[in-house]
Structures are given as structure tokens and as C-alpha cells.
Amino acid sequence: MVKVEFPDGTIRESGKNRIKDILRDVGQNENAVLVVVDGCLVTPDLCVKNGTEIKLISVVSGG
Amino acid sequence: MKCIKCEENAVISLSRHNAGFCKDHFTEYFHRQVEAAIKEYSMLKTSDRVMVCVSGGKDSLVLWHILNLMGYKTAGMYVSLGIGEYSQKSKAKVLAFAEKNKLESIIIDLDEEKCPIPLLAAKTKRNACSVCGQVKRHYFNKVALDGGFTVAATGHNLDDEAARMLGNVLRWDTKHLAKMSPILPEEGETIKRKVKPLIRLTEKEVAAYAFLNGIDYIPDECPKSRGASSLKFKEVLNELEAAAPGTKHFFYGEFFRAAADRFPYITNESDKDEIKKCIKCGAESYLDVCSFCRLTEKLNG
Ligand code: SF4
Ligand SMILES: [Zn+2]
Ligand SMILES: [Zn+2]
What is the pLDDT of residue B91? Predict the structure, then answer.
């Protein structure tokens, strides 16, 4: 399982390994978030190991 | 994915270019896009004194950062809206950014001016955002005039403007469709030229630039923006973009080639009477008392 931390701090898990599939799995559009693994930005084609923690940063501002 | 230029690991992929970039080459790409926008629309001259309208959010601080790197003479102009913790936090980000980069900041605090947005909205029974827009416009114009600025720059990105365009098209709001250009001319002595140098960059690109270049911004949204229709439009555009990369650029950019001439820009000056000076604050106005002073008068009523 991969742990996904949302911008609001909530945590969800995903059984997928490719970032693109993980985002789809947790219902996030890849244009609406940055994905950070170990403090680095990563691209959607990257595959991560089980147990990895990924952090999402929202890019959308309102107003 | 590898960087298209140097084979390092990519930190961002741009589907519409079918390319990935490492940090350095993304930064280079980003700067080139800003330069291209400035050049394409003749937004800025090196002799300009640029007022950067900052909110403490990613877009405006990235814009300030980059215009400063490019050598423009800038000052950040911030209006603290008096919206609780959000205003305190965003003001702190602006001040910290200015201090770190040794830049001039001009702060207007609506609590000190005794007209915080929540109070004005309650007293006038108007929507906070519409009051806020009017108040910010007043202070932007005033500070630009008093501070000898020649142009006002805002951090609007492609997503902001494509979402606004979509909203205007859905309502066939011809008045606002006439004001979609990333450069608007000056009017009278008060209203300065307005430019949007980040117009070629998506919201995701701006956020990535802020992250990669250590620009510390407030990630929280203004609490009054909850449920804003612009957020829904952005969501829809992101769906379309995922299905057909490049849609946002095409939708926004093609408007100017295919349709903008049907919605000519009409200045406020051309359709009204003679312009005067507000007897209370000196701002340009078509009436003896300007709309801002009429608004704040309601606080004493
Ligand atoms: S969301 Fe509304 S109240 Fe908040 S800053 Fe934007 S316009 Fe002003
Ligand atoms: Zn590279
Ligand atoms: Zn006035």
C-alpha cells in the first residue's frame, strides 16, 4: 500500500504503484496537484514501492 | 521520465509539450514564458516602476520574484483585508518575502483604515467579494498614483484567466469578454496600465516554480472564496485538459485570434461625462464623491 497525504492533512491509502494510477485511484486530477515524494517533486509516470508516503500539494486557488 | 534537455530525472511533465524538465531546465522554461508574454504584449519597459499587487499567495509572490530577477524596478502592494487569521498569515508572508529579498513593500491595512471587508459587507448587505474588489481597486489606484508607479502587475495565471473566460462565455457577458486581454490600457491619470505576465503559465507550473525555488507562500485560500464558481470552472477545465492536453491554452489563446474583435474594449472614459476629483479623497470620479467614499460612508450611517 502507498500512503497519500492530502493538502488538508487527511491520509488515504492506495493499492496502485504508478503516481498517475494512484492519483486516479484517490480521485485527484493531475493538473490540480503537485506530488512530492521524499521532499522532491515527481512526475506521474513514476512508480513507487509499497510503503512509500506521497504528499499532495494543491495548486488551485479560488477567488 | 527524463528531462528533455539533459537526461536528469524530470520534476515536472508538461503534457501539452509532451516533455519533462529537471529543476534547472524547468526554471529556464518558466522564465522564457514570462519573457515571451511581456514581449508579445509589450507589457513592460525597463524604465517602468512596477507595482506588483501581492496577496501572499503563490502567483503574486512568484511574479514579484521573477520580475525582480529580470531587473524591473518593483514594489509589492498588499491590502490586508481584515479577514481574521487569513489576513494575518498572508500579510506575514508578504513581509517575510520583501525582507528576504530586500524589496519595497507597501501595506494598506483595512483594520487600521477602519473598513475591514467583513464589516463593509455586513453594513452594505453586499457580497464580501464584490465589496473587496471595489476596495482593492480603490487602493491599487491610489497607491499607484501616490507612489509614482507606471504600471500594475498581477499574478493571474492561465487557469485563472481561462476559468474567467469560460464564466464570461457561459453568461455571454460581453462587457467582461472585452476585458480579457492580459494588458489593459491606462485610463485618466488614476488608472494605470495593467498587465498579467504569468498568462502563459498554468497554475500547476506556477506552484511547481514556487516549490522548486523556495518561495514561501500562504497555501490557504481566502475563506470567502469557498464555493466560488471560478473553482468549478477550473475543475472542468482540468478535466478537459487531462483528456486533451493543450485545451486551456487553445481556449484562451484562440479567443484573441478568432473572436476578441467582436468584443471591443470600451474605456470608462468614453461613455460617460467629464471626469472630476472626489471631494473627499481626491480620486478620479464621475460624481462629486467617488464610489469608494460612498461605500465607506455607509459605515458611519
Ligand atoms: S475571495 Fe473574495 S473576499 Fe477573499 S480576497 Fe478574493 S475577492 Fe476578496
Ligand atoms: Zn534538464
Ligand atoms: Zn473618494
Answer: 97
Chain A closest-CA separation from residue B17 CA (Å): 14
| pLDDT score of B300 more than 90 | no
Contact B13 A44 (CB under 8 A): yes
Nearest 5°: phi and psi at B263? -125, 75
Query: Which residues in B46-68 are b (16+ Cβ under 10 Å) and which e?
Result: eebebbbbbbbbbbbbbbbbbbb
pLDDT for B100 equals 97
Q: What is the pTM of this model?
A: 0.94
Q: Which of chain B's residues have a Cβ under 8 Å away from the Cβ of A37?
A: none
Q: What is the mean pLDDT of residues B128-155?
A: 93
Q: Is domain B40-271 classified as CATH 3.40.630.30?
A: no
Contacts of A58 in chain B (CB under 8 A): 219
Please judge whether B242 and A29 are an interchain contact, meaning their C-beta atoms are less than 8 angstroms apart.
yes
The string of pLDDT tens digits covering residues B146-172 is 999 999 999 999 999 999 999 999 999
Domains of chain A: 2-58 (3.10.20.30)
Q: Is the C-beta atom of B127 inside 6 A of ligand 1?
A: no
Give pLDDT, residue B272: 56
B129 lines ligand 1 (CB under 6 A): yes
Cβ pair A40:B11 closer than 8 A: yes
Cα B104 to Cα B64: distance, rounded to the nearest angstrom:
11
Eight-state DSSP code of residue B39: H
* Amino acid code (one letter) for B188: G
